[in-house]
Write a structure and sequence with these properties.
heterodimer, A: Rossmann fold, 3-stranded antiparallel beta sheet, 9 helices, globular, B: mainly alpha
């Protein structure tokens, strides 16, 4: 029995003369991996930032567990987010960045070594992050997201810029998290990867929801890429 | 709030650039006392400009009043505390941990105030120590009264507390670190200095003018063409500085609470 963990209700976001998200309504079920797909500029990141309280919606709302992100009692212990490969200071080491985040939320520092182990960054603990590769930065972002051992994970293009080894590592990482029963909402351009990873799919194009359902419902016997192109470009395979 | 403040203090301690800034504040402040000692004594002996040397109380006042002059670095520290969040994208992580932005702002204002105080305390100590060392090369010199050192310390400490807060407000408003720091340097070292020096009726209400009033030390009108009578007395000067802190705190709050983080 699943329940709705994340909900977008008639969400719209207008930036001056650009409507980034338009009347977007969708649900994400608990304990499932949901792929959030759409072309560049479709409004995925804006919708996720509205969900996390970083961007104010023009109209509508985005809810986690029935309320806004800001209403969560201890957000980092309930929701982990990776929005881009930044989010930590390049002049600090991985350990220092994690200590800053942990101390802000009252998380015991013993958790830091655990998350560094989970993302395979134990060897770079005391290295300044400005010397990190993109893959290492993504792993550190994931480590920060995992600090509070949250049941919900929101990942915005986590595979961006990763090499094939990094992509394989990320796939296994997401699968492991999913097997632990966490709710995962992940946006990505890696359609082949998503096809093998997600349970449900949301497809957004030009700020508008164009499809929502289980991966099988969306694919209808085709590949996810073919279904995606049909839905976003109206192109038949 | 306690956790958030601890996190902000960690950021301050971990960043090497903050320690470098502290070091520079000390060098700048030390030059502020050593340079006039050299100049005053050289002028007196060699150029006959008529300034009082360090063998007079006015000369000593002119030298040690500069020990409060490192406040620019307290302002920059406050700017960095805020703009680092935008420059390096850490604002996203900060606001994800603490979505109530006003709480983040309060923590930043408090940590910037503490940082500003530390900067001014360090630069004051460096300036005073360097001044005493330099005076030894120009004996005999007039005594350095404790009252003078206390007045300058009071101005240093209060200006540090306030300008750290002003820096956070400025950083929240401008966001672009280079623009905010450059603007603060140009304003403090050039524009404000000129206004305070030449339009005292306005200058006394600017931060530098209020700090001068708070120092409350006269150099002697005949010797340096400067009289403290043209500035606010310490009480109103403190109120003016606190007003700046309040205005910039409100600015920081209003801009940060409303801003989208893209």
């Amino acid at each position: 029995m699943t329940s709705t963990t994340i909900e977008f209700r008639n969400l719209s976001k207008q930036y001056k003369d650009v409507l980034a998200v338009s009347n977007f309504s969708a649900q994400v079920q608990s304990g499932r991996v949901t792929g959030f797909l759409g072309p560049n500029g479709a409004g995925k990141s804006t919708a996720l930032r509205c969900l996390l309280g970083l961007v104010n919606p023009t109209v509508g709302e985005a809810l986690i567990k029935g309320g806004p992100y800001s209403a969560l009692s201890n957000p980092i212990k309930e929701v982990g987010a990776v929005l881009d490969s930044r989010g930590f200071h390049p002049g600090l080491t991985a350990l220092q960045n994690l200590k800053v985040m942990a101390s802000a939320s009252g998380i015991d520092f013993s958790r830091i070594q655990e998350v560094l182990k989970v993302v395979d960054l134990e060897g770079a603990t005391n290295k300044r992050t400005k010397g990190f590769s993109l893959g290492m930065k993504q792993r550190l972002s994931l480590a920060i997201a995992m600090l509070g051992d949250p049941e919900i994970l929101i990942l915005d293009e986590p595979a961006n810029g990763l090499d094939p080894i990094g992509i394989v590592w990320l796939r296994e990482f997401v699968r492991k998290l999913a097997s632990e029963g966490r709710t995962i909402l992940v946006s990505s351009h890696q359609l082949a990867e998503m096809q093998n990873t997600v349970d449900d799919v949301l497809i957004i194009n030009k700020g508008i929801l164009v499809a929502q359902g289980s991966i099988d419902e969306i694919r209808q016997g085709k590949s996810l890429e073919e279904a995606f192109l049909e839905l976003t470009l109206g192109r038949s395979a | 709030m306690k956790h958030l403040l601890q996190s902000e203090i960690r950021k301050l301690i971990y960043l090497r650039s903050n320690w470098l800034l502290l070091l520079w504040s000390g060098v700048f402040a030390a030059l502020g006392t050593v340079a006039p000692i050299v100049v005053l004594n050289s002028e007196r002996q060699n150029m006959g400009m008529g300034f009082s040397g360090t063998n007079t109380p006015e000369g000593i006042n002119a030298v040690f009043a500069n020990a409060a002059g490192g406040y620019l670095f307290a302002l920059i520290m406050g700017i960095l505390i805020m703009t680092n969040e935008y420059r390096h994208g850490t604002a996203v992580g900060t606001f994800l941990v603490t979505p109530k932005r006003s709480t983040v702002l309060y923590a930043k204002l408090i940590s910037a105030s503490i940082a500003g105080f530390v900067v001014q305390l360090f630069s004051y100590l460096m300036a005073v120590l360097s001044g005493f060392v330099a005076l030894n090369f120009y004996e005999p010199h007039a005594p350095v009264p404790m009252e003078l050192l206390w007045k300058v310390f009071r101005a240093s400490a209060l200006s540090g507390l306030v300008l750290g807060v002003v820096g956070v407000g400025l950083g929240a408003l401008v966001k672009n670190q280079v623009a905010a720091v450059t603007g603060a340097v140009i304003w403090t070292l050039i524009v404000e200095g000129l206004i305070v020096a030449f339009v005292e009726s306005i200058g006394k209400y600017l931060p530098a003018g209020a700090i001068t009033g708070l120092v409350d030390v006269d150099f002697g009108e005949n010797d340096f063409n400067f009289t403290i009578d043209n500035y606010l007395t310490p009480g109103p000067a403190i109120l003016v500085l606190l007003a700046y802190a309040a205005v910039f705190s409100v600015l920081a709050m209003r801009t940060t609470l409303r801003r989208d983080l893209d």
